[in-house]
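Q: Two folds, back to back.
A: First:
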Amino acid sequence: MAQTELVKRLLAEQDLKYRDFHASLLPNIDKKTIIGVRVPTMRKIAKEFAASASPAELSRFLDKLPHRYFEENQVHLLVVEKIKDALECLHRIEQFLPYIDNWAVCDGKSPKALLNDPHWFYAKICDWLDSPEPYTVRFGVNMLMAFYLDARFTKEQLERVAAIDENRFCDRPAGSLKTAANLKTAKTAAVPTDRYYVRMVIAWYFATALAKQWNATFPYIKNRKLSPWIHAKTIQKACESYRITDEQKKTLRALK
């Protein structure tokens, strides 16, 4: 399956109602670039593409950036996360990170090959947390949340995430502002910003950390070590979680 066949396959699975719904969740993305393919179907297509494309075809697809469609970007990382060679997997992730311009492509990925050396992987994550690119930072926090809140957890990881300077990301509509359409949207609508998406993943991380590492994480809430917005959002997300006990939720609500 070549890239042109991949796009045809994605277009054949188009669900216009789902496209309209998903586009509403991605206000910074041009709706024309969203085909409207449901996630389970997209994962199936990505698996088929990785299995049927020749190494040369896969390489051409991964090298040909940027892609036209949102779903191509999703397939891109779904293919990369299955690469078994850690160095190749890392190379392909870092090649692609600058092209991520929305939360949906950024989230939910699982490049398990990088766990062959958890210390090396953690060092790369720390580099991503220091990036000037908001979705590179978000990807790094996602990796800590996915892989480092259980047996690999250390208190230093909480410190690293808490130290992210959210204010280095400006309050402008998330993604590129280079197109006239985006500039118009920026002036006429309340569009989530780069800073919002960084703040949100930090809050999500701390809410998940409260569920998995309560004793180490709770002092960040008790002592108000997070910015007011992230503090409040962390409590909200934690109180929405079934993994937080009723007693813990009561304690958190008292610290709003």
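A: Second:
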Amino acid sequence: MAVTDFQSQMPQRNNDLGASRRQRALGEQIIQFILLVCAVVSIGTTIGIILVLLQETILFFQQVSPLEFFGDTRWTPLFASQRFGVWPLVVGTVLVAVGAMVVALPLGLLAAIYLSEYASPRLRRLLKPILEILAGIPTVVYGYFALTFVTPLLKQIFPGTQTFNALSASIVMGIMILPTVASISEDALSAVPRSLREAAYGLGATKFEVATRIVVPAALSGISAAFILAISRAIGETMIVAIAAGQQPKITFNPLESIETMTAYIVQVSLGDTPHQSLAYKTIFAVGMLLFVMTFALNLISHWITRRYREVYE
């Protein structure tokens, strides 16, 4: 009798199991579709940005020769005597980015080495979120911090420092991107197998020697990628340089002078004083396209370094 009841219940159990499997398969398909939509939206947005920049840049170069854009050394598109040499903006951008790297790269790498090799697990869990809080501070706050605190301090040290200068923007920008360098570098250092460290300790190496001669070289691809990503972010930063660096496009390598970066110029023109569809307004798209090409090239280099020099441990 019990066998008969069990056999009679088997089809119902099979039906319930089949329905459960169909529901799970349907849920997986829905999740897959949502992820696909998100990926398509991301790609479509990127393509749309590129097309808009490309279209407006072509219209700009129909009126301004690329030879003048890349060959002239004066940038005065908002003046009566218009000149369209982009090099003052490029030099200002590179000057600020290099200064930020001088601050962020060594400090970020040292912080990553400490978190990975010296800090206890409990201290690491405490310090790393605190360090990453710097990445959550609005960049406009960094800009006013550079203008109202760092610049007066620099004037006391270097009396010839101008009110708007590249050095204060560089220092504060370096502080801003420091969490990017430290976090990604620490992840790369932590990914190095423990066996390499233990082998070095077995040969009598000190902790400092293990960190600098074993762990850092083994994680060099990830550290290099962190450096390049930080550089690309520094090049694309807007509010810090718009507030603290000034709006004087000129070719200078003196960080105590006022300069103008590519992003700061885009902000200046986008404020609304320049008529739309004018030649001066179209310059922001040409500058934006050049900025996009620069950051895209840096991202490609970062990706290539990561794949080319990545160490695979088994």
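Q: And?
A: DSSP finds twelve helices and no strands in the chain.
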